[in-house]
């Protein structure tokens, strides 16, 4: 399953997402969802402790000026890589 988080972790229930995760699932942070990737934040700590493989869309991280503050445990990817994720995980759930 590919989960996409496009809302700030302060405006959605990240804990609910983490309750349904399974081994082999991917999570892509995009739009305001990239805020969840801030190093040291509660959301980043929770995501890093999960079974999910974590990704963030580069354009959204850069657009918000978060690149220097981003968790090194989250892979920053391009739009092309996003397409590859959708090919790898045919099922998607948007948060």
Describe this structure in words.
The chain is an alpha/beta fold and 95 residues long. The protein has one domain: DsrEFH-like (Hypothetical Protein Ychn, Chain: A). It has four helices and five strands; from the N terminus they run E-H-E-H-E-H-E-H-E. The protein has a five-stranded parallel β-sheet with strand order 4-3-2-1-5. Strand 3, helix 3 and strand 4 form a beta-alpha-beta unit. The radius of gyration is 12 Å and the shape is globular. The two termini are 13 Å apart. The model has no long low-confidence stretch (mean pLDDT 96).
Task: For the structure shown, list the relevant keywords.
single chain; 95 residues; alpha/beta; Hypothetical Protein Ychn, Chain: A; five-stranded parallel sheet; 4 helices; 5 strands; 32% helix; 20% strand
Provide a concise account of the structure shown:
With 95 residues, this protein is an alpha/beta fold.
What fraction of the residues are assigned to beta strands by DSSP?
Answer: 15-25%
Just name the CATH architecture: 3-Layer(aba) Sandwich
Count of discrete domains: 1
Q: What integer value in Å does the Rg equal? A: 12 Å
Q: What is the 3D form? A: globular
Number of beta-strand segments: 5
Mean pLDDT: 96
Structural class, by secondary structure, is alpha/beta
SSE string, helices as H and strands as E: EHEHEHEHE
CATH class bucket = Alpha Beta
Biggest sheet: strands, sense, closure? 5 strands, parallel
């Amino acid at each position: 399953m590919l989960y996409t988080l496009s809302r700030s972790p302060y405006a959605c229930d990240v804990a609910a997402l983490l309750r349904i995760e399974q081994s082999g699932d991917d999570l892509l942070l995009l739009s305001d969802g990239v805020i969840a990737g801030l190093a040291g934040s509660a959301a980043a700590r929770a995501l890093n402790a999960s079974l999910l493989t974590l990704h963030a869309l580069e354009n959204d991280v850069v657009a918000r000026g978060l690149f220097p503050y981003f968790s090194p445990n989250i892979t920053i990817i391009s739009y092309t890589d996003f397409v590859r994720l959708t090919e790898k995980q045919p099922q998607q759930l948007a948060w």
